[in-house]
């Protein structure tokens, strides 16, 4: 009994085989089918390679949420060169909470020459070209995120030659820990001193002829330092045409969490709007000469994650490509053969045997059966369905209507189905 049940189970499984095998001796090969198969395999190979490249590639996914971390400190990274001597200028931060952060807490004043060496000038021009491309094509920012921690440091390279002139500028570089509120980082004439009502700069001790706020921003960023990341103000250079020039940068900071294959850190993107004008109290242009960077922090936080295609999705897409090409090429080849037969009139050339059947000896449903066996195409099958409806509705009982149908078939398919007496 167990053997009989096992045999019944095996026979049932064989009957459920969805992939019947046709013996090779029953398969008819042709040059057209071989050509279509070759094209199909070539398309499969090409699309498979392209799909694999897409699978290996990654893209950046952006998610937005409210920034709930408002009590932590924010690091301000600075590397600015001003065309004035270090003893004449001072830099500090004053925020809306009336908290003053002086440059002594993390900034270094280094006397340098304002003019760059040839190698440094080449580096700056390259950085400016990258900035122009970033403004034109914002999608390049994704490449910078993915290249973080893999690229070389974007800081200004050291000078390769010794300057012949004494230092005429001051390089202010370092970092400051600031509060996560709106504030103002500025560089102006005179050293900053604390004051009960705010703060002040000792500008009266500096001669007006020494004013020159031409400056170069080699680096300016918020958050952790990341090699390979280029910020909007990096490479900026301004030449003052007047000693009373005031430069203003209005900055909007967006807290950003960067999560890639190489790095996971808190980075802060920002956008900037520039404005400059000459201070002239006689014409109503009031203010203080200097460099002012007013920043504000957005309440939204952006999470940037490097994402890639999962393996199961790649396999599903690969199966879809292979199966789709097989099915599509088979349909195209079948349609091509059908239209070739139709155009060349293979019925009239004797490729198929004529039907020696008399109309009077056949009933309506026998004629329908012959039509279904004769026309193998799906288009003709639709036509047979229409004819079946007409026969069932007794619309083709007259010999005249049947002759009209035969004339239409003979016109379009080059063959008469029946032999009328």
UniProtKB/TrEMBL annotation:
A biological process term (GO) from this entry: retrograde vesicle-mediated transport, Golgi to endoplasmic reticulum
Domain Endoplasmic reticulum vesicle transporter N-terminal: 13-99
Regions crossing the membrane: 36-55
Compartments where found: Endoplasmic reticulum membrane; Endoplasmic reticulum-Golgi intermediate compartment membrane; Golgi apparatus membrane
Keyword Nuclease found: no
PANTHER family named among the record's database cross-references: ENDOPLASMIC RETICULUM-GOLGI INTERMEDIATE COMPARTMENT PROTEIN (PTHR10984), ENDOPLASMIC RETICULUM-GOLGI INTERMEDIATE COMPARTMENT PROTEIN 2 (PTHR10984:SF30)
Name this polypeptide is given: Endoplasmic reticulum-Golgi intermediate compartment protein
